[in-house]
Amino acid sequence: MTLDDLRRIMVACAGEDEHVDLGGDILDELFTDLGYDSLALMETAARIETEFGVRIPDEQVAELTTPRALLDFVSGVTVP
Amino acid sequence: MTQTTIAAPGERTGGAATAVITGLGVIAPNGLGAEKFWAATLRGESGIRPLHAEGHAGGHPRGGGPRYPVTLAGQVSGFVAEEHIPSRLMPQTDRVTRLALAAAEWALEDAALRPAELPEYSMGVVTSNASGGFEFTHREIQKLWTQGPQTVSVYESFAWFYAVNTGQISIRHGMRGPGGVLVAEQAGGLDALGHARRAVRRGTPHIVTGGVESSLDPWGWVSHIASGRLSREPVPELAYRPFTREADGYVPGEGGAILVLEDREAALRRGAAKVYGEVAGYAATFDPRPGSGRPPGLEQAIRKALADAGTEPGEIGVVFADAAGVPFLDREEAAAISAVFGPGGVPVTAPKALTGRLYAGSGPLDVVCALLALRDGVIPPVPHAGEVPAAYRIDLVRGAEPRSAALTHALVLARGKGGFNAAVVLRKPEHPEAVPRKEEK
């Protein structure tokens, strides 16, 4: 899963804040600064599970505060 | 006791604030924006059309078509959500909330009220809704059954909810004062206005209020049909003719109105552009248990609202009726009106014959009509109305032409299935141009 995949999924799940440039270097930006709240991230996690087969537990979602942290988590999971 | 009074006068103690309406936001089947809606209403233009299963522009799935026994609805057309709603809010909102957010924005613009310039706790939101986010829920429930629970949107948690319009409006505009939602089927929109006035009198000077509905997706549509009160007439002009011999049910619709209600003094201080009118009286009653033999509560609601406004029946120049279009309900309402005003004692009209019944949306939309009728000195007619049974003893304004009338007060009525009655008295402002002219520099 790439950063572009994540961008696409986040926009589909929760739209796009007109004051934020998602196309920029956002790997280490906080999701909250990008305009995504906890519900937006839960929705994103659900979509990632559907598309990539990686389950992110709800309590884990809250700890993944940046795109880098989320992508690292997804990459580190072994899909059965 | 013949009925329980759930909201009564009693707030007019000790210099209660005068609550005035300073902004109108309308989304109606026959017009977007208050002035377009009003012009269409005076011309007798209807927004009632056949529902098509494939929906209209915007791709909303709709009930309707030959598989359904009822095929007509008042439908908002020409509303492109993406032009009014930020991308962030699209995935989390039902159509009803998009309509409500747009109407709220128009009401604020009309009132020249800029939330960012006011203290956030000085503004509140009180709306009514009777159906929730039906289409959103329809889609998510379908996903639940066909693709599993993990595919259901987290936003279903609030997008379906009656309170969602209040919540989204307050979040979007940073209005952190009192928030509320009232659910009382068709009566709820007037109850919201009454509660908004209460909030003003308790010290929150600026309240966004009103009600909007939309539930014309297939699941919503069968829910409307299940009420048993819908007209099965397929010809739009003939389907919803309240108070007439031909009345045989109503046509449901979508839309409504959002209003800005303010403490008059605070509105003047912030430089409000205009005052449409005062919410001078409000009351709500509840009908007795069916079969009890006791009278319905509407007459009592009218009398209490008049008393609350300190207004005599003779001062009311027009009644905007609930106009259920169901004969026994029309008869009850006509009896209440003629009991208070005398036989044929006041002009009665029902512009909702052009929009369909909008549930929580109709009361506020009728309030808009009433305020503009006060402003312009005209009463919109009910076109295509047939003969009114003599026993009703009401002066229904019929025909193609509006009726001219010098108006100072209007009465708006709404009744909700389940026994809800609400009445609002509106008073024409002495000075519609709210702002004392600023001295030239």
Put the structure in a nutshell.
The complex is a heterodimer of chains A (80) and B (441). By secondary structure, chain A is mainly alpha-helical. Chain A is 51% helix and 0% strand.
Description:
The complex is a heterodimer of chains A (80) and B (441). By secondary structure, chain A is mainly α. Chain A has a single domain, classed as ACP-like (Non-ribosomal Peptide Synthetase Peptidyl Carrier Protein, Chain A), CATH 1.10.1200.10. Helix content of chain A is 51%, strand content 0%. In chain A, helix 1 (3-14) packs across helix 2. Chain A is globular and about 35 Å long. The two termini of chain A are 16 Å apart. The model of chain A has no long low-confidence stretch (mean pLDDT 92). The longest helix of chain B is centred in the N-terminal third of the chain and has 17 residues, at 95-111. Chain B has two domains: 5-9 and 281-427, 3-Layer(aba) Sandwich (Peroxisomal Thiolase, Chain A, domain 1), CATH 3.40.47; 19-270, Thiolase/Chalcone synthase (Peroxisomal Thiolase, Chain A, domain 1, 3-Layer(aba) Sandwich). With 441 residues, chain B is α/β, with parallel strands linked by helices. In chain B, helix 2 (95-111) crosses helix 5 (164-173) and helix 6 crosses helix 12 (362-376). The chains are: A mainly alpha (80), B alpha/beta (441). The A-B interface holds A 11-18, 35, 39, 42-43, 46, 49-50 and B 86-92, 150-151, 153-155, 157.
